[in-house]
Description:
Layout: E1 5-10, H1 22-36, E2 43-48, E3 53-54, E4 57-58, H2 59-65, E5 72-75, H3 80-86
Parallel strand pairs: 1-2, 2-5
Antiparallel strand pairs: 3-4
Helix pairs in contact: 1-2
Amino acid sequence: MYRRARSRASRSVSPEEPARDPRTLFQAAGRVVRMLNLTPQDFGIDVMGTTESYDGVRIQALAREAGLKGFVRTYGSWARRDALEFRFW
């Protein structure tokens, strides 16, 4: 038996900072999900911070475009201490 694998990011996504473009992560994760035939119970991506949209497109829409419907969860901004804990629970 194994635990659900998840990727966590605790930062804002911003078009002004290309390194924070979630599409790269979503596209790569979508390929892995399809290659390994994973379900949201097997794998997920949790994003916390200013995450409602990126470059005018909702994060959940970007996830769906990458084949990750149901795999991505978003959380609003949290206090720094809580954000650090978020990365490890």
